[in-house]
Every structure is written in structure tokens, then in C-alpha cells.
Amino acid sequence: MSAPFEERSGLVPCATPWGRWYQTLEEVFIEVQVPPGTRAKDVCCSLQSRRIALSVRGREVLQGKLFDSTITDEGTWTLEDKKLIRIVLMKTNRDAGNCWTSLLEKEYAADPWVQDQMQRKLTLERFQREARIIFLTFTYLHQNPGFDFSGAEISGNYSKGGPDFSSLEK
Fold first, then answer.
1. Per-residue confidence at 7, pLDDT binned at 50, 70, 90?
2. Is the keyword Cytoplasm assigned to this protein (predicted)?
3. Domains along the sequence of the chain with CATH
């Protein structure tokens, strides 16, 4: 158990020698601790669809092929309080089944317990998003009783009533 689930934030961080990384359905967050007093001009960060490179004051901190693809134009980095670099990558594949098992293809893997917690969090996030859509749909239907779904088709994997969320922790 290298990283506990953070109840208040809902994060499941994966600790690394330089900081930590975590993910949501849509994004991957990377937090890198840097020497206090670091300035933006000391940072060189390259974000590509499948690659990342970060160096601070000429020293390589993080470099390699990402676990999965990201949207290049949506990636950002910021320097906070002159001691923390926060990188945000937008996943190309944004479904609950796309839980990254590591940050890079061959480095910074989550241990099995953390990986399980990450997957649970993403599944719960998807469930909450879908429940909100269902709630809004029913609210709309209640306010507009003449709306007709008789010709609608349901697509997706709903065998045996859909995914089983009964094992999720409350």
C-alpha cells in the first residue's frame, strides 16, 4: 500500500522519486517537487501526444514514452510557489476502462493495490457522471411529459443489466 486513497479529494496518487501522479477519466496529473526558488525560465518541458520530457536547471527529471496517448494541444504545465511543477495531460481515450497502469510505458507503475484503487475511482467517476445524465434526463421528462422514447435504441455493453458496481466502497 504505497499510496492511500485521499478521501477529501478523491485522488489515488502514485508516489514517485520526484513527486506523484494521478488520474481522472479525462486527465493525468503529474506533480514534480523542485528546489525552492525555481523560476519558470529554469524549466524546460516538452509535452507531445505520446512523449514527455522535463528538465529543471539543465537536469533531466522525467523523460519517456507515456503509457497512452494524450491530446498534445491540451497539455499544460505550471510552476506553483516556485517549488512545484504541475503538469496536466488530457487523455485521448476517456472511458473508465482506460486506467493507466503506469505514467510511462516502462516506469512509474502503480503497485497492484494502487492500480485497483485507481480503477475503482475511475469506475465510480463514470457511474456518477452517468447517474447525473440519467437524473437530468428524468428531470427533463418530468417537466416535458409528452417526450416519446418509443423509437429509441440502447447501445453499449449492458448484458446482465450493465456493469456491477456492488463491490465499490461507499
1. very low
2. yes
3. 5-139 (2.60.40.790)
CA angle 69, 23, 72 (to 5 degrees): 30
Residue 114: Cβ within 10 Å count: 21
pLDDT of the residue at 158: 53
What is the rounded CA–CA span in Å between residue 9 and residue 25?
15
User: Positive or negative, the Cα torsion across 51, 89, 68, 62?
Assistant: positive
- Any idea which of 27-31, 78-82, 101-105, 135-139 has the lowest mean pLDDT? 135-139
Residue 1 clears pLDDT 60, i.e. is over it: no
Cβ distance 6 to 13 under 8 Å? Answer: yes
Looking at the DSSP assignment, which residues form a beta bridge with residue 56? 43, 59
